[in-house]
Amino acid sequence: MSSIVDKHGVLSKRKLRSESAADDLSDINDAEITGYLNNKKEMLFKKLIWEAMNKDYQKNSKKERREVVEKKETDYLSEYLVLECRE
C-alpha cells in the first residue's frame, strides 16, 4: 500500500501496481499468449540470424573452450610427469 495525496490535499491509501489484480495474468487466454510465442519456423529463423550476426562470438567461444581443454591436458600431463619423477 502507498499513501497518495490528491490535488485537494486528501491523503488516501492505494494499492501499488504490483499488488493490484492487474498483474494477475489469468485473464489472458491461451490463444493470445500463443500469439506472442515463436513457432518452430520463427525459432529457426531467429537462430540462423543470431548465428550469422555472432560468428565472431561463436568462433572465439570455441577457441576459448579449446584452449581451456588444452591447458587442462597440459596441467594433467605436467602433474603426471612430476609424480613419475618422484617414484
Topology readout:
Layout: E1 2-5, E2 11-14, H1 30-36, H2 40-53, H3 55-86
Antiparallel strand pairs: 1-2
Domain Brf1 TBP-binding: 26-73
Protein name: Brf1 TBP-binding domain-containing protein
InterPro entries: BRF1_TBP-bd_dom
Description:
The protein is mainly α. It has a domain at 39-87. Helices cover 61% and strands 9% of the residues. The chain has 3 helices and 2 strands; from the N terminus they run ββααα. The protein has helices at 30-36, 40-53, 55-86, and strands at residues 2-5, 11-14. Strand 1 and strand 2 (11-14) form a beta hairpin. The protein is elongated. The protein starts with a strand and ends with a helix. Residues 26-73 form the Brf1 TBP-binding domain. This is Brf1 TBP-binding domain-containing protein. InterPro entries: BRF1_TBP-bd_dom.
Amount of helix = 55-70%
Spatial arrangement of strands, main beta sheet: 1-2
Give Rg in angstroms.
Answer: 29 Å
* Main sheet characteristics: 2 strands, antiparallel
| Distance linking N and C termini | 73 Å
Shape: elongated
Provide the β-strand percentage band: 5-15%
Low-confidence stretches: none
Overall structural class, as computed from helix and strand content, comes to mainly alpha
The total of beta strands comes to: 2
What is the mean pLDDT? 77
Total DSSP helices: 3
Q: Write the H/E string, N to C.
A: EEHHH
Keywords:
2 strands, BRF1_TBP-bd_dom, 87 residues, Brf1 TBP-binding domain-containing protein, two-stranded antiparallel sheet, mainly alpha, elongated
